[in-house]
Amino acid sequence: MKRAGMVVAIGLALGSWQARAAGAISDAPSYDDLAHPAHLYYQRPLHDRFTRIKADLESGRVPLDQGSEKSFLISLLKVLGVSPHSQMLVFSTTSLQLSLISPSNPRALYFNDEIYLGYVPGGRLEIVSLDPVLGGIYYLMDFPSPSRPMKIERSERCMNCHAAEETGYVPGLVIKSVIPAPGGGSLTSYRVGKTGHDIPLSQRFGGWHITGQPSFTQHWGNLTGRSISGRLETYPLTAGSRFDWARYAASTSDLLPQLLHEHQAGFANRVLEAGYRARLALHLNPNGFSPAQEVELEEQSERVVRYLLFADEAPLPDSGIQDSPDFRADFQKAARRATSDGLSLRDLDLKTRLLRYRCSYMIYSPIFQELASPLRLKIYRALRRALSLSAPQAAYSYLLDDEKRSILRILEATLPEFRGLAQRAALE
């Protein structure tokens, strides 16, 4: 059976499932078969944030500034609630628009918790919008002109990379780290098949610009290379030395957005895989999980909780990282704060770790909150065990009691379902 990362015509994929159901294929159904009736990736109604406004964008009911590519981009980011200060520039040819990307024309990426937008000057806009159930929905969008109306098409070609090994073979997010040749093509790759905050910073950022962090040099960013007699030689590439910042929505490609982007991508991929596994299990056994499924979903729950609590977070540079005040201000606008003391999972540390309270703010995201209820409750219970003060777990010994108390206080103040578990347990 082909992995779900391969782009397959819908009819063929459904035919494959029907043949299996009829006994022509003996393999058990795989959680990542996107055409399986449990998922119906290409047929299920979509509820992601971008799809909800797609028709209004195409019809012009949502007005956008069409004066230039840049003005259109900035107005679209505003409509989508995406900060222009989340901008990250990547000059490696790791996109469908590779023919347009180079150190002289880098691709810009912008994001919030639900939408990821790519912009290549002179090209098309790329959108990944996370559907609460299905995960990544991929769109390509043309810049409109007086002679050409806005066109937004759903792209299946994106699935070749976005539903493969790095995403757990479900529709997720991909981050590459490569050393580009002078024209942008990749000479070598790092952190292959991996996404998340656990990847050492020394393996990240190849093909990306890093700005605002002059003391941080132990990474592969801001470099191009050449292969000379089988040996890789690298050369510095200063952001803005070969392109004009004025073409972009911001004049930065700072480290803070890149670290949060990596964290979110790792979260999304792990949660979406767990969700696909749970949905298939419920489809096959709607009246209760089998013992094997219980084991599988408990393992997935523990994996998600370990990631939620930053158990394997890669160390920051010894000097910490420099703040990006404009981005931080936009990032913290979405904070849910505990009413008694104002604490939030979006509070930043930036000295020894990314977040002040090591529990991901992505727990509020639709892809987590729309997980199948049995799986979501398993994760909440595992999270409570990990944060226990009376029966501490060795795997979470890095969390001191004061930090555990703060995390519990925030979660109980902002997540009624999580608070309800504790209340029910107290009554039992």
Break the fold down into its secondary structure elements and pairings.
Blueprint: H1 10-21, H2 49-59, H3 69-80, E1 88-90, E2 107-111, E3 115-119, E4 125-131, E5 135-141, E6 152-154, H4 159-162, E7 177-180, E8 186-190, E9 223-228, E10 231-236, H5 255-284, H6 291-308, H7 325-332, H8 366-369, H9 373-386, H10 401-414, H11 416-427
Antiparallel strand pairs: 1-2, 2-3, 3-4, 4-5, 5-6, 7-8, 9-10
Helix pairs in contact: 5-6, 6-9, 10-11
Structure keywords:
428 residues; alpha+beta; 3 domains; six-stranded antiparallel sheet; 32% helix; disordered N terminus
Task: Please characterize this protein's 3D structure.
With 428 residues, this protein is an alpha+beta fold. It has three domains: 1-44, no CATH class; 49-253, no CATH class; 256-427, no CATH class. The chain contains eleven helices and ten strands. The protein has helices at 10-21, 49-59, 69-80, 159-162, 255-284, 291-308, 325-332, 366-369, 373-386, 401-414, 416-427; strands at 88-90, 107-111, 115-119, 125-131, 135-141, 152-154, 177-180, 186-190, 223-228, 231-236. The radius of gyration is 22 Å and the shape is globular. The model is unreliable at 1-26 (pLDDT under 50).
Contiguous low-pLDDT stretches (5 residues minimum) are 1-26
Question: What is the molecular shape?
Answer: globular
* Fraction of residues in β-strands: 5-15%
- Cα-to-Cα separation, first versus last residue: 47 Å
The counted number of beta strands is 10
Range of helix content: 25-40%
Number of helical regions:
11
Question: How do the helices and strands follow one another from N- to C-terminus?
Answer: HHHEEEEEEHEEEEHHHHHHH
